Amino acid sequence: MLVRTEDSWKEAGFGSFTPVQERVIPLLLDGRDVLVESPTGTGKTLAYAIPLIEKMSTEKKLPQAIILAPSKELSMQILDVVQSWGKPGGVRAASIIGGANPKRQLEKLKKQPHIIVGTPGRILELIKQKKIKTHEVRTLILDEADQLFLPEHTQSINDIIKSTLADQRQLALFSATLPKEIEEQGKALMKNAEVVRVERDTQAASNVKHQYMVCESREKIDLIRKIVRMDSMKKEKSLAFMREVRDVLTATEKLNYKNLEIAPLHSDLTKEERAASMRKFRKGDLPLMLATDVATRGLDITDVTYVIHMDLADDLDQYIHRSGRTGRAGAPGTVLSFVSPMEVKQIKRYARDLEADLEEVTIYRGEWETVKQ
User: Fold this and answer.
1) How many CA within 13 A on the CB side of residue 9?
2) In the chain, fewer beta carbons within 10 Å around the N or the C end?
3) At how many degrees (to 10) do helices 72-86 and 271-283 cross?
4) Rounded distance, CA 19 to CA 94, Å?
5) What domains sit in the chain, N to C, each tagged with a CATH number?
């Protein structure tokens, strides 16, 4: 075990490293540039947080590492991990995110954090204002890299990277899925990058059931209401996905009208509203979180037992991202997709590609029933 993080590791009750940690930590400690693809829930955050913390020179007063994330929520989640593991060794971290009070963020910078975590736009803004000095930054981490290389972030990412010194810069990209074009973009910015791909744990995946229900679009909201109110679902924690913000808004309004309070999560909510939704859902006060994909990207929501695709995933990568919210670390879980008759072939193709068993279910007299094929 590494020296600075050893006590934290023991206190957290962890045993051995996960496969991604085992492969990535030595590379980062060795100063290598890495591109990492590893499924959701496999320990990617600690795979980069541990070597970052180990390498910090706590006597220095300028930032030595920047961690970029595509959303405020993921940034705060990463910050929690870095602070809890870094604090015993004297490592300071601060979040710099869009939408937060700029004056408060400047106050955070006055405390001389060693690691800065945040969203690209605000971090670049403060670099340009010379409020964040990057000449001591040795490591840049891009978490959820496939989202960070979307057109709206690409220029900011490139400018942040260019603000650091090329001859001393270490760059690491992490994602649950690493498409070829993202890999190529990453390699263009790196020096002799090592590509690390960690396969899905088939044993853990086998604890997740994959199911589908055939229905029409107009039936979905009533179906979700029935599902949440089923006796067998009373103790379940369900996370449902819809494609568009407007659909989440409509569904939330209709479910509230039916006296079913749920936790919405979408980009139109204020920071406070999003935090309130997350808090209530995490505590188990509300049985269902209804979200768009962007809103939940990278979030670590524990104990989710059901993932419901109210709108079928557009492709296999999206299906994997969503479905990975349940069955984490080998825990049991269920993935349920609402599909139209025309989408049955698509959901069967996803299951075949994942080598997962798939069953059709329906609701009969208030309980689940398997449809015999």
Assistant:
1) 18
2) C
3) 60
4) 28
5) 6-197 (3.40.50.300), 202-370 (3.40.50.300)
Rounded to whole angstroms, the maximal C-alpha distance in the chain is 67
Residue 71 phi, psi dihedral angles, 5° rounding: -140, 160
Integer Cα distance of 124 and 142 in angstroms? 14
Classified as helix, coil or strand, 90 is coil
| pLDDT band, residue 261 (cuts 50/70/90) | confident
Lookup: tokens for 189: 């910015």
For helices 120-128 and 151-162, give the axis angle rounded to 10 degrees: 40
Lowest mean pLDDT across 97-101, 109-113, 213-217, 259-263: 97-101
- pLDDT of residue 216 exceeding 90, the answer is yes
Q: What is the C-alpha separation between 33 and 38, in angstroms, rounded?
A: 16
- What is the chain's Cα-based Rg? 21
Return the closest-CA partner of residue 322 out of 352, 289, 371. 289
At 39, list the tokens: 């499924």
Q: How far apart are CA 18 and CA 13, in angstroms?
A: 14
- The secondary structure of residue 233, as a DSSP letter, is G
How far, in Å, CA of 87 to CA of 98, rounded?
A: 25
State the Cα–Cα distance between residues 334 and 211, nearest whole angstrom.
Answer: 7
| SS3 assignment, position 67 | strand
Please report which confidence band the pLDDT of residue 11 belongs to, taking 50, 70 and 90 as the band edges. Answer: low
Lowest mean pLDDT among 7-16, 104-113, 268-277, 354-363: 7-16
3 state DSSP class of 283: helix
**Mean pLDDT, residues 326-352 taken together:** 89
Which tens digit of pLDDT belongs to each residue from 21-49?
Answer: 999 999 999 999 999 998 776 788 889 99
Residue 203 has a pLDDT of: 47
| Mean of pLDDT over the chain | 87
Phi and psi of 129, rounded to 5°? -80, 0
Q: Compute the distance between CA of residue 220 and CA of residue 159 in angstroms, rounded to an integer.
A: 44
User: Which pair of tokens denotes residue 58?
Assistant: 């706590």
Asked if residues 301 and 40 have their Cβ atoms less than 8 Å apart, the reply is: no
The rounded distance, in Å, linking the Cα atoms of 73 and 94 is 14
Q: H or E stretch including 347?
A: helix 344-354
